[in-house]
Specification:
It comes from Flavobacterium succinicans. This is Starch-binding associating with outer membrane. This protein has a domain at 47-257 and 415-464: Alpha Horseshoe (Serine Threonine Protein Phosphatase 5, Tetratricopeptide repeat), CATH 1.25.40. Helices cover 48% and strands 3% of the residues. The protein has 19 helices and 4 strands. The radius of gyration is 22 Å and the shape is globular. α2 (47-63) runs parallel beside α6 (124-145), α7 runs antiparallel to α8 (205-222) and α14 (347-360) packs antiparallel against α16.
Amino acid sequence: MKMKKNHNSSFKRSLLVGLITLSAVFVSCDHELDINSDPNNPTEAPLATLLSASEVNLTYTLGGDGTRIPATIVQHYAGHRGQPLNYGQYNITSADTDGLWGNLYDVLMDLKTIEDRTIVSGDKIYLGISQVLKAYTFSVATDLFGDIPYNESSKGALGNITPAYDKQEVIYPALITTLDQAIANLKSGAGAKPSTADLIYNGDIVKWEAFANSLKLRLLNHLSKKNPTQALSFLQTNPSLIATVTNNAKVTFGTVANNANPIHQFDVLSGRKDNAVCKTLVDNMKSLNDPRISKYFLPVTNNNSGLAGQYLGNLPGNDTDDSGENLFSRVGPSYASINSPVILLSAAEVEFIKAEIYFRANDLSNSKIAYEKAIANDFAALGVTDATYITNPLVAFNNTLARIMEQKWITMYQASYESFVDWRRTGFPILTTPKTNRTGGVTPRRLPYPQIEINVNRASLQAGPGIPVPYVTLLTKVWWDN
């Protein structure tokens, strides 16, 4: 399933070269030299290189295309022109998702290679790590698109570019099974630890197990409309979870252009200047005196408008041009600096998940504890100290799901694709309808299948979920959203 790249692919290629080359420096070889092999022309990439590539590609994709469209739908972002403005007006077409779809399946192809080779070699540590990343990547894809190629999707290397689509209700149990297998493989201790080739946890098996359990908890909680007690049952088994900010699952980017953070590349290095942050989020945080504002946003910098130094968001769908950066704030230093991390799953998110699960079980005491710990974790991750925030009457736990989800929406500014899941499941936060939009004022509930699938895999698409109808398919619900 080789897909075409988006306009930002040149940035990604240079990034991959920079980080993978760096990681390869640390990969050691303890086997004897095979004089029948040409070391300058290897027949296959080392597992370490494939792992680094998978981690970089996944986080770069999620921090880039995987963030921009969902971030606009859930009103973290509000671009003022070009492609970001189109997203804000729900003018989201199949051409917009080509890059995202292709990059996710590129990651999955590399992970399948790792899986195939480690099954043969018996390296269960590498296998377990690849399975966690596989479950994560597939989960993002199915949450955004619904039914997707799953069982046949990894056969592209064998010439199958027209894989069948699988239903989401089949995919989700398979992902849970994959995570259970990953945990068992990791705990076996069999194989070589990837060390510095693992850009997330440096080969720490205990942290990978906690990541796998935390992802499992996230996915079970996604099924709150289908099976509201399943996540609680798992939580009651007391699984190891990501509990401290030092164990957040993330990839931290570099300090030069060819391995820079993806948001920094799109917003700063590209020179586009067409994205902005959303007034819905900025005004919400200002009303709460949220001390994270300076971490989340850059103040208006140019003084032509007299607004310099203020934190201001653009209205959803508003096309007032701000190429001079006189009117609206941009993504701030914590997530758009050149070396900012892209976070896959955090201790803060885990506690918000627990708060929701306990709330649904009417365990308000534990829900409150988890809610307050979630906010504290996000503050700690950002280096923010403010003991009064949690006592603000508009922030303090008030025994409602709305309060939990609104605070989680603020925290998940760093992973808007997950906020998109939350909004669809719970209806929170309350969003502002863009004055100009292509969907009759109805907020999208999924992304359209990419144009490349319509062109190349049309028969499978027709036999499965169907060819997307412009601006109509956006409003149809995925399986777990019904």
